[in-house]
Design goal:
Layout (H helix, E strand, L loop, with lengths): L1 E5 L6 E5 L3 E7 L2 H6 L2 E6 L3 E5 L4 E4 L7 E5 L7 E3 L6 E5 L9 E7 L4 H4 L11
Parallel strand pairs: 3-10
Antiparallel strand pairs: 1-2, 2-5, 3-4, 4-9, 6-7, 7-8, 8-9
């Protein structure tokens, strides 16, 4: 299935390829808890930025591996390159225009990231 998504103001637009039934993570780390990000991790080949690259700003912290992209106009972080899956893309399910038919939300303990990150590594691999 193809899904379209973007930021609040519409300057940044993207499409993804994902199944009708998805599993996402609800992370409790310091940044995700504050932003309400629901993680749909995909292989980068399943993501296409359609417009708005010039509006993207990047925030990095700690080890500066993750690249948190956000719209410089409205401030929404619709996707990013996660530290757990640097070969993939992590899309905020809440930024998709149409939602998958079924969504299973897993709680993810990002506060204890080092102990749990490996459980996500498979999500950015092409099937």
């Amino acid at each position: 299935m193809l899904y379209n998504g973007g930021c609040h103001c519409g300057k940044v637009q993207f499409s993804i390829e994902a199944p009708e039934y998805v599993e996402v993570e609800d992370c409790n780390c310091s940044i995700c808890e504050k932003t309400g990000f629901l993680h749909l991790i995909l292989p980068r080949s399943k993501f296409k930025l359609l417009s708005g690259e010039q509006y993207l700003s990047c925030y990095q912290f700690n080890e500066k591996i993750a690249k948190h992209y956000f719209c410089s106009v409205c401030g929404i972080k619709a996707f990013y390159i996660p530290r757990s899956n640097p070969d993939g893309i992590d899309v905020n399910l809440r930024c998709l225009e149409q939602k998958p038919k079924s969504v299973h939300i897993n709680k993810f303990d990002g506060r204890n990231w080092e102990a749990n990150a490996a459980t996500l590594a498979h999500k950015s691999k092409d099937a």
